[in-house]
Amino acid sequence: MLKLFGSTLILGACAGTGWMRSRDLRNRPRLLAGLQASLGVLATEIAYGATPLPEAMIQVSRCSSRPANGLFAVAGQRLREAQGRSAAEIWRSCLDEWLPGTSLEKSDGEELGRLALGLGTAPRDDQLARIHEVKNRLALQERDARELVERMGKVWSYGGALIGSVIVLVIW
Amino acid sequence: MRWVQAKGLLSDDRVPKETIPNRSEQKWLDQLLPYFPPSLRPLLDETYSNFPDLFSETSEIRLRAGRPLALCGYRGDRLLRTVTDEELLQTVHLIAQCSLYAFEEEFRQGFLTLPGGHRVGLAGRTVLDGGKVKTIHPVSSLNIRIARQFPGAADWLLPRIVPVGEGLFFSTLIISPPGGGKTTLLRDLVRQISSGRPDLGLAGVTVGLVDERSEIAACYRGSPQNDVGPRTDVLDGCPKSEGLQRMLRSMGPQVLATDEIGRMEDVRAVEEAIHSGVALFATAHGQNLEDIVRRPGLAEMLRMNAFQRFVVLSRRRGPGTVEGIFDENRNAVEEGGRLC
């Protein structure tokens, strides 16, 4: 009985891990695409509305889907209560807190972190150029992520359960 | 209250704490404190708690990197502790809401307006583009001018610019040196003309206000922060020469008002205004009428009889001292000596 319980537990854990990894792989390109759209809104707010960053970030959060909206909402709120801290510092700290709770990888975070360079302190044209650069880099990340989903998505979906089965057979 | 030039606070000239400033005087500090970095807020709070008279006497707060924070009033300056580069940068971030790109035009012009109408003058290293100032970077000095309105400042003036015969108002030029109170007087004049003065039998009329330097209405993101009356349309940040013509073409004002005219390019706009049957209220820098005659643009306006009344102010007995009111022939209509 105990053996059966243990085997079920191993099989469930392995299958669950595989499923979660597969889900993260599938979510990543979606989130990267969503972030590009959010950056597009941010660029519009800066270019045409000359909206100050706190309001622009809040506006972007309203137009973004989860979980990207959380990043911009918190950044906007913290910029409102900046107390003299630079926008770059605030963006980096928000990103560091937000990233671990998402399907994104460290390299995606590094690309998003580039937005901090000159954020709020550069002239409008430079600001827009930086946003477009980050957007383009995220597009490349998204393309890689989609390729990874095609190659590894099913491997992780079924791989977890298969590995669990193999372990159970070996133990049995 | 003694105003001294001193480094740090002097304990011996403290005034009794029971001298509590009224709430309207305290309001400007509440509005401005969030724009100072957290390290400077307690210093300002403490200073104003210990010296309540400063509330009414401070007209400017100046921050200069590596130099003392200065509270400036018409009686002198009070110097507090040195402002660090970091503190000045933080103040710039707070004032610009971490968004310098959103204030590019303001940085190019060298000033921006805060909610409440307080103006922040900027100085530092100018960045040029094609020989013109593109921006100021880095900013090394800030001058925060505290906005104060004096409702009623034009009470005495309005009856003196209403003609007995035809026409609504005499076109009037208010002349004073910087800090003499000409903008304050013009602001209240605009408010009263726009609101109407039932005691004088004057109904409110439409006023077109061209506020190139945002000093009269003190617009913050397009909305006037000062009371300029219910029938006043404000063209904020627009060059006077273009703004006066735009107002005439698009808003149909009965009265036009603007600050600090005198350049040659203003002459044409003024000429167009006076020939459109509109009364014009304007201000100009100068000590007296002779100064006005020496400036080519203003001399040309005088030749055109653009103004029927000249109000000369000075700081002789404090800002807003009236030195005299003169007619178009430069004859005194009223002798000076009074305060607005």
Automatic annotation (TrEMBL), chain A:
Top-rank lineage group of the source organism: Bacteria
Species for this entry: Heliobacterium chlorum
Protein name: Stage III sporulation protein AB
Automatic annotation (TrEMBL), chain B:
InterPro entries, A to Z: AAA+_ATPase, P-loop_NTPase, Spore_III_AA, Spore_III_AA_AAA+_ATPase
Pfam families: Spore_III_AA (PF19568)
Keyword field: ATP-binding, Nucleotide-binding
Entry keyword annotation includes ATP-binding: yes
Source species, domain of life: Bacteria
Flavoprotein in keyword set: no
Domain AAA+ ATPase span(s) in chain numbering: 168-317
PANTHER family: KINASE-RELATED, P-LOOP CONTAINING NUCLEOSIDE TRIPHOSPHATE HYDROLASES SUPERFAMILY PROTEIN
Record-given protein name: Stage III sporulation protein AA
